[in-house]
Amino acid sequence: MGPYRIEELAAVTGTTVRTVQSYRTRGLLPPPERKGRVALYSEIHVERLRLIADLIGRGYSLNAVDELLGGFGKGHGIEHILGFADTAGPDEERSTVTGSDVVRRFGDDRAIDDLLQLGLIAPVANAPDGEAVDPVDRTYAVVRPEALAVGEALIAAGVPRDRVIKAAESLSRDATAIARDFVRLVVDSVLTDEALKSDENITRATDTVSSLTPFAERVVAEYVTAALHDEITTEIQRHLDNLLHRRSVI
Fold it and tell me: What is the CATH number of the domain that holds 53?
């Protein structure tokens, strides 16, 4: 369906032209597509208007809806609204690495695709004028500098690259599971419907979620550090026992 002129959009969603214009001004609706002097709206606008109507019908104030959805119309993601914006900044503020550097440091050009898949690096810019560029000749932003450095150190220490990649994939899955459990633990109790019915409560709830993030990071780090210590001690003891056993047999 669509596209719709503003009068048609208002009719389809059971609202008024004035309301649509008001929501656009507040940033609750994304800009329409323009063809000449005509503004055309799509199904995205229909769904957004229905969502706003549903939230208001549930008792949310317009200020609360604005707090929740207004950031999207201003180009922000939900992580920005909740205070989780990427602290590394845009690509130009990150350190960069060339494809040839990746090949040199990680062994072969397969490493470029591996690191892209893991989210450790990201292309800085598209090739000019749609021109195809060899991945080795491209420049990449370093998204996860610590993980990249650890991977390089493991390979330099003699750990096969394929095993390092598999370990990174496993670690990413485990980290996602831990983060999901923690977020659900907090969100299910803090970001309730009642908490999101006023702009004051939204601010308080999102501040609470944001403030608990460093706590989660410290707890995870503490558990991982303790687990690493236990595993290293166990493995070293196992190898020493095996060595002593072989010597006693000889």
Answer: 1.10.1660.10
